[in-house]
Design a protein that fits this description.
Order of helices and strands: HEEEEEEEEEEEEEEEEEEE
Number of strands: 19
Structural class: mainly beta
Number of helices: 1
């Protein structure tokens, strides 16, 4: 066969194949529908619908860098004793909040994951909160009312440990709330020679009325057979907000163990839209626990300090504080920290 005949035969074969394919219709596969993320504005900004569900999810958190100063400084979350007078750490925290409507009202679930890094090789990751909330009932790991305080960094009117496995009911209305909580206090204060098996009952009442805010919190530690009560309030006066607090503790217990009683005051001055300066003072009566944490000492103490908050840009904040503690029969101690925090 000559080259000419081979080319003619190949052309004829291609034409036949093309004709056969042209006779059959080509059907393209239908693309699958794509469900784009939808904004959920029923619960405020930042929520979106989880695709394929009616559950709304919000992701938030912050990154914090902090350097603290003080004798043998060791930042919270690290067990090793630091022999230096300063220490830095970095924190990353992410919070997932899920909400959906039910016949009992919004069903809320919250998970907060946090990691603190003292350095590259010394890091502590923890579950900072995880709880279910519906119809005023909250169950899980969450912070108690005793975690609340005044706005500065001088007051010392909360529990040493405020994160518990708890079951709580809280009633809320416009500008008012009241609730009761049963708290597992396994990692809280307990007397020498006993096991850390505390159970506590706490109550909280609070609200807002015009320029005033108020909160009354009480707790009873069943293992130590002691309790504490705290009253706290603020009022807008002049260019700032005046905050006052008072606390009484019958004996050292999981809810308060710093002193038998204490009073604290601060004045948060809004110097500019971005700058807030808060001087504060606290007095401790019968400061410190003795005799295996079963009773308070006869010493008193004063604490003085000032906190400066500055918003650098949206979602980026700086905070600096310095405090001086002067206790009977002890040397005065100066502490403080500088913090940068980026929220999202």
């Amino acid at each position: 066969m000559t080259i000419r005949m081979m080319l003619i035969s190949s052309a004829a074969a291609l034409a036949a194949v093309s004709g056969a394919q042209a006779a059959d219709a080509i059907v393209a596969a239908e693309p699958e529908a794509v469900e784009y993320v939808r904004v959920c504005d029923a619960y405020g900004t930042g929520y979106f619908y989880i695709p394929g569900t009616e559950t709304c999810l919000k992701v938030s958190g912050y990154i914090r860098f902090q350097t603290g100063a003080g004798p043998n400084r060791s930042e919270t979350g690290f067990g090793a004793v630091n022999r230096s007078d300063w220490d830095s750490y970095t924190r990353g925290q992410v919070q997932f909040t899920a909400k959906s409507d039910t016949e009992y009202g919004p069903l809320t679930g919250v998970i907060v994951l946090q990691t603190n890094a003292d350095n590259a090789s010394s890091q502590v990751a923890k579950l900072d909160s995880a709880y279910i909330d519906i119809a005023g009932i909250r169950a899980g790991l969450f912070y108690s009312w005793w975690d609340d305080g005044l706005s500065g960094e001088t007051d010392d009117i909360g529990s040493a440990v405020t994160l518990h496995n708890s079951l709580r009911y809280q009633y809320e209305a416009d500008g008012f709330y009241a609730g009761v909580s049963v708290d597992e206090l396994e990692d809280s204060l307990y007397s020498t020679g006993e096991n850390a098996n505390n159970v506590g009952v706490a109550v909280g009442i609070g609200g807002k009325a015009g320029i005033f805010t108020y909160q009354v919190t009480a707790g009873y530690d069943t293992d130590n057979e002691a309790g504490a009560v705290r009253a706290m309030g603020t009022v807008a006066i002049g260019p700032g907000v005046l905050g006052l607090a008072g606390i009484y503790s019958s004996d050292p217990n999981a809810y308060y163990q710093k002193s038998e009683w204490a009073i604290a005051a601060e004045y948060a001055i809004k110097a500019t839209d971005k700058l807030k300066i808060t001087p504060g003072v606290q007095y401790y009566g019968n400061y410190g626990a003795i005799n295996g944490n079963t009773e308070f000492s006869n010493n008193d103490a004063w604490k003085y300090g000032v906190t400066v908050d500055y918003q650098i840009v949206d979602n980026l904040y700086a905070k600096a504080t310095v405090n001086y503690l002067d206790a009977d029969n002890a040397d005065g101690v100066t502490t403080g920290f500088f913090r940068l925090q980026r929220a999202f």
